[in-house]
Amino acid sequence: MKKVILGIVLAGGLLFPAPAPAQGCSMCRDTAAGSTPRMRQGLRKAIPILGVPAGALFLTMLTVAWIFERRSDS
């Protein structure tokens, strides 16, 4: 029962995260502010695209850990 409750809490945290401020460094902000509008548009598109492989790696490792945890329970 504890695992079910923990799973629900974790799923809720992943699906509905709390809003957080951006963590931009001053060098990145200044570089982006001094670039052309086309470059800023490219950066806005690139950031989510670069997040996809990181998210895929995270989910893969989470799945592998879950599979091994289930095997050890059997």
Can you give a write-up of this model?
This protein is mostly helical and 74 residues long. It has a domain at 25-74. The protein has three helices and no strands. The mean pLDDT is 83.
Structure in a nutshell:
80% of the residues lie in helices and 0% in strands. By secondary structure, the chain is mainly alpha-helical.
What brief labels describe this structure?
3 helices; 74 residues; mainly alpha
- The span between the termini is 17 Å
Summarize the main sheet.
none
Mean pLDDT: 83
Q: Which structural category do the helix and sheet elements fall into?
A: mainly alpha
**In what range is the share of β-strand residues?**
under 5%
- Helix count from the secondary structure assignment: 3
Helical residues, percent: over 70%
The rounded Rg comes to 19 Å
| Poorly predicted runs of 5 or more residues | none
Q: What is the H-and-E element order?
A: HHH
**Overall spatial form:** elongated
What is the count of β-strands?
0
Secondary structure layout:
Elements: H1 2-15, H2 26-33, H3 37-73
